[in-house]
Every structure is written in structure tokens, then in C-alpha cells.
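Review form for a predicted model. The reviewer records the input and the model, then writes brief findings.
Reviewer: anonymous (R2)
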Amino acid sequence: MIPFRKETPIRRDIKTVVSKYSDHREELKKDYKCRCGYCNDIDVWRTVWFEIDHFVPQKYLKTIKDTDYSNLVYACRSCNNSKRAHWPTADELIHHKDDEGFIDPCDNEYDKQFLRCINGRIIHQTQLGKWMYYKLKLHKPQHEIIWQIEELDNLIEECENVLKTIDNDLLKDKVLGLYREYRNYTKQLGSI
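Model under review:
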């Protein structure tokens, strides 16, 4: 087993008043390092499908404004659509109770709910994590596949650095040709 994610996102304390919550998109993208707060998928291949989630759903907001940065999460469409307005406590101040509900993805406790298998599959570690796992549909294969593609991309970068030290132009050309073809396909994922 490996950690669920390498680092917990840190949401800055932005108090800028905006007319609509989507005005915070670029700041959220930066704070979440281009990753979904819930599943940790990177937005490189799915930029079009990333949205802004209200951690406490809008229908339960009483004191929190729908444009408050502290309640927004950069989220992939899959997690945002799965979470929807699920909020078992029906209270904006109580995030979870009796192993049902959510933990803010910027809270270090969120990482304790999940681990990854060596192939990138997400697994739950706690009862609350299990509830979130099924509500967010973290069992969907896309999360594992995106993780694997990112790992392959990192490995390719390492191999390219090693190839720079090898004095065999034919081998370099063949391997670099494969890398370029792989990268061409992954770039196409973003335009689908």
C-alpha cells in the first residue's frame, strides 16, 4: 500500500469578494495543484471536466456564502456529480456524524481515510472513509487509470534523463519515438 496522495492541498485564506463562485477557479486550481480535492486525479488530461464544488452544498448554506473561498473545492466532474448535495447532517457546521458525511479535502484527516494499492486503486481505511468512498464513487476505474498514466509519465521523464547519458543514437531514437507517441496519445485525452 502507498499513501493516497503525496500532499494535502492547502486552501489559502482568500477573502476577495466575487460576484460568482466560478471567479475563484484559477486560485482554486493553484491551491489544489491542478488536482481534484476528492480523488486526487490531475487535470492534465481532463481539464474540460474540472468544476468547482461547494464542500457544504449550497442548499444547506445559512451563514456561509456560496462565493466563500473557504467552502470551495477544485473537483473533477466525476466526484462533483457523485457528491452532489449529499450532506447527511443537513447542518452546514457539522460535516459528518456516525461515520456518514465528508471531511474537507484540505484537512489532514482526509488523507487518513484512504490508501492506494500499488496499481493506484483507491481503498478506504475507515468507516467514514468507506462512506465517502462509495458516495464519491472512488472505485471507478478512471481514478486508477489516471494515476497509472501519471506514474508512467514520471517514469518516462526519468528514462529521458538516463538516455541523455547513453551513447547509442539508434536506441535513443527508438525509445524517444515511443515516448513521443505515448505523450501524443495522452495529450489527445484532454481534447476528447
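Findings: The radius of gyration is 19 Å.
Further findings: The chain has two domains: 2-140, 144-189.
Recommendation: see findings above.
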